[in-house]
User: Which sequence fits this backbone?
């Protein structure tokens, strides 16, 4: 009896084509998935017109220095679904505010952005009920305080287990 020679498999051009299509197919699929997640989570828009924003920067910086020179201190608290804000003079007495608005937003995610009005609480502070999920939040408080420009206080808070840390 004669022994049959073992049949060897050869790597052909079709095998190379299949390997290349599979390799680049995985890369394209991952890139498309990541692009879809990026498009759903943040538009990438920081300012509508960067030139105008750059021209207004010095004015905003000067207004910030003028607010700091007043010596007023804002106190922001969030706990158990209650957001409170109080603005006090350097002697500890509350500053009379009206039309207190708060813009809440995530640093890089617009879907949860909201603007709420705070109501007077009786002790010179203002508050409202609002549910904030855990994570980072940017809180922008704007109020009329008898100044030429509205009082502006921007803070970043971290909410964990229903309270700001």
Assistant:
């Amino acid at each position: 009896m004669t022994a049959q020679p073992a049949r060897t498999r050869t790597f052909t051009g079709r095998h190379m084509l299949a390997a290349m299509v599979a390799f680049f197919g995985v890369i394209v699929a991952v890139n498309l998935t990541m692009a879809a997640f990026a498009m759903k989570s943040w538009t990438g828009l920081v300012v509508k017109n960067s030139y105008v924003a750059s021209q207004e920067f010095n004015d905003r910086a000067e207004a910030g220095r003028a607010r700091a020179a007043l010596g007023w201190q804002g106190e922001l608290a969030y706990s158990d679904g209650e957001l409170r804000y109080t603005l006090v003079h350097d002697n500890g007495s509350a500053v009379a505010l009206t039309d207190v608005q708060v813009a809440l937003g995530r640093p890089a995610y617009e879907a949860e952005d909201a603007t709420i009005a705070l109501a007077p609480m009786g002790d010179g502070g203002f508050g409202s009920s609002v549910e904030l999920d855990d994570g980072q939040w940017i809180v922008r408080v704007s109020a009329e305080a008898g100044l030429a420009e509205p009082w502006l206080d921007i803070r970043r808070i971290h909410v964990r287990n229903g309270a700001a840390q």
Q: What stands out?
A: The mean pLDDT is 89. The beta strands are 73-79, 82-88, 98-106, 109-117, 119-120, 126-129, 135-144, 151-160, 163-164. The first strand starts at residue 73 and ends at 79.
